[in-house]
Amino acid sequence: MYGRQSRAVVLSGCSGGGKSTVLEHLAAHGYRTVDEPGRRIVRQELRTGGHALPWEDADRFARACIDLARWDCEDVVADRWTFFDRGLVDADTALRHYAGRSACSIEELQSYHARVFMTPPWPELYAADDERQLGLDEAVSEYGRLLRRYDELGYSVTVLPKVGVAERAELILAELGLRG
């Protein structure tokens, strides 16, 4: 793993808050991005008829997210900035919520860059779909759990303002010293 000055940066926050859109913007500008483990698992499970879905077996889903997030971390090149749509902290926080236990070590959970970026609840953007079936109230509760957990783990949290995608991406890059 990498340590607090890692170039592995997490974008977390409220479901439907615009994380994926910001990451698409960063990818279009040459940065490496890693898609959200949960979305990838849900797509696979829906395609294959599997049951590791948050609305069917939340414990199994969270454990699968942890496994995939671990693999994502191992796949990162240490000298290249990489932006993650969620990561181990998010998956482990879900497992703690659904099953009352953690599956990750503190070292794993603190392996990302010390600054994490959070998208707040943004009801005007939020939309449920086949892959995101939780309601906005549940997404807001999840956001609160994630804020607390990142804080407990000693991350410096920047809550992104509700502005355009390019402005959000520029704020992230500026806070990381990648601009100006």
Automatic annotation (TrEMBL):
Residues 9-168 form the NadR/Ttd14 AAA domain. InterPro entries: NadR/Ttd14_AAA_dom (IPR038727), P-loop_NTPase (IPR027417). This is NadR/Ttd14 AAA domain-containing protein. It comes from Gordonia sihwensis NBRC 108236.
